[in-house]
Amino acid sequence: MTPLRVLVVDDDDLMRAGLRAVLSSDETIVVVDEAANGLQAIERTRQHRPDVVLMDVRMPQLDGIAATREIVSAVPGARVLVLTTFEDDDYVFGALTSGASGFLLKRTQPEQLIAAIHTVAAGDSLLSPSVTRTVIDRMVRTPQPDPVASRRLRALTPRERDVLELVARGLSNAEIAATLFVEESTAKTHMKRILGKLGLRDRVQAVILAYETAMVRPGERSSVRD
Domain Response regulatory spans what residues (predicted)? Predict the structure, then answer.
């Protein structure tokens, strides 16, 4: 099995050393390099083409949100997992809309961090319940649905719209399968088709789109029927 290649980005020398030590405990992960700011992160992502970039937010020269945006554009295969001490909604929303595939707080347990790296490397996204609430709360403050984004939903079949709604409500593939009385593999296939039709990279973008288009509104009951 080819190890996952990870770039560690943080402006704190001690934090980078600690993260490297944690990741080295998993033989399926190799740290290819480190970066102390956003500009270095972009440069070294281009150089090493890692599977996952473990990204800090507050850094000198260029912050993690701007660096994430540049990395996702320049190296589409690299997945960005934001790791920060800050749970401010501007940081969360900024990171996710810039293209990050997940968002974790630095108080996350080592085993959860390792699992998160494997999750985003596999092409899935990672949103903790608190982060999901932050995204939803931010979408509530959006005054009107985006009409351009809404037109994109017309490409979906009714069943695909059901799946997208359930994804936006925070259900996993297994929970979606149980709700719709289908196999989990079928739910995964629907999700893959949704991402392809809408030109989205992962579930994070799908959740954001669902709220931007007012397809899902907080507090409303699900419209999905089996």
Answer: 5-121
